[in-house]
Amino acid sequence: MASRYMSRFGVLALLVIVMAWCVPAPPAEAASGRVDATVDGFRLDGSAWWPSGFDAYQLATDWSVNTGCGAMVDLDAYFASLPPHSLTRFDLFAQLAVNKFTGAIDYAPMDAVFAAAARHDQMVLPVLVASDGACENGQFKERDWYVSGWRTVVGAGGMTFRQWMRAAVRRWKNHPTLAGWELVGEPEPSICGDAACGWQTRSCPSDAPVVLRTFFDRAGAAVRRIDPGAVIWSGFAGGGQCGTAGPQYEFVGGSAGLDVLDYHDYGSDGVPLPGDQWNGLAERIRQARVVGKPLAVNEIGQNAGSCGTRQQRAADFRTKVSGQRAAGTATALFWAFVPDPRDDQCTFDIGPGDPTFGLVDDLVRYGG
Question: SS3 for 37?
Fold first, then answer.
């Protein structure tokens, strides 16, 4: 889970930047395209699909190969515990493709996630990088990264983000479990105020929405040159962050490089439509309809453990998602599955056997 938190911009600035950055696309290749995204929701293999499942960021952790991101997961046990056609969002970061012993690229832990999902008739949504640098270099991605750094800054495996994005899309674009691509988790083109770059010290540049939309225009086009049928998810937190506050959410969400708009839901236990009139979930659903795209609630978190029972959390989740689905949302993913929940602490941890698994079983709808 990334951090939780209007600037004006001119039409002229938008036109100048977009025109300067537009590039023609080379001929397209074939793609699988099992998932379609429409304003009315998702379709899987041509049938209506309302997916639910978990954020399980740790799935590609393999301590025998990579530095990992959290604990190792028994992949078959995890996917077998879900109903068919569930959706799991997980980290597919470049750092996890680096063999920690040799420094060479080693896709085996990532290939294992896709293979296990396929064995159990599951779908996955890989996230290619986190805005806060989690499980990689720990550095927050500021405004300049979205302007040019994603193409120029060399990171894990000796690759820029654009190189990693291309490598990942080429490798898994036709995998039968692929539900789409999330390029950046919780993108926010702020400027850091100190080395720690806490949200309290960040500033939001006036051109943030133009920068963010242009990033998605260009990065999305790069993905589609390799995978024309790609479904690209925004990764937005949706709560008024820099670049997507108020009406900016609709402006950036209108990018041709995006197919799905996101919202992350924390701090309003049992409340179906949290937030205010400017940045609340009801407004995000309305804005998604305006741009003709589904609204996915891809992180729903509530503490349990030492501060509350897991049964009550599952009941609150059920109340929340029932109201959200009735209001028009297209997905509900719960933060976060971990194989080693800290039962003696107050956390978002959802471990094996948690009652939320029963809720996912009730929520997933496919066909009919």
Answer: strand
Which of 133, 227, 130, 222 lies closest to 182, judged by CA?
130
Residue 355: pLDDT band (50, 70, 90) is: very high
Under the banding of pLDDT at 50, 70 and 90, the label for residue 13 is very low
Tell me: the pLDDT tens digits for 261-281? 999 999 999 999 999 999 999
- Unique residue bearing structure tokens 């990264």: 145
**DSSP helix/strand/coil, 105:** strand
DSSP-assigned letters across all residues of 253-300: HT-TT-SBEEEEEES-TT-SS-S-TTTSHHHHHHHHHHHT--EEEEEE
- Tallying the residues shown for the chain, one arrives at 368
Is residue 11 predicted with pLDDT exceeding 50? Answer: no
State the average pLDDT over residues 10-33: 40
DSSP 43-74: EETTEEEE-EEEE-TTTT--TTTS--SSS---
Query: Strand 47-50 and strand 304-305: pairing?
Result: unpaired
Structure tokens at 344: 């003696």
Interior CA angle at 41 toward 127 and 176, to 5°? 50
CA dihedral 185, 188, 190, 192 (to 10 degrees): -20
Reduced to 3 states, what is the DSSP secondary structure of residue 160?
A: coil
What gap in Å lies between CA 175 and CA 179, rounded to an integer? Answer: 9
In tens, the pLDDT along 132-185 reads 999 999 999 999 999 999 999 999 999 999 999 999 999 999 999 999 999 999
Angstrom distances, CA of residue 243 to CA of 146, 248, 321: 11, 6, 27
Q: What is the mean pLDDT of the chain?
A: 92
Residues 122, 324: Cα–Cα separation, whole Å: 23
Neighbours of 11 (CB within 10 A): 8
- Measured distance CA(8)–CA(248) in Å, rounded: 9
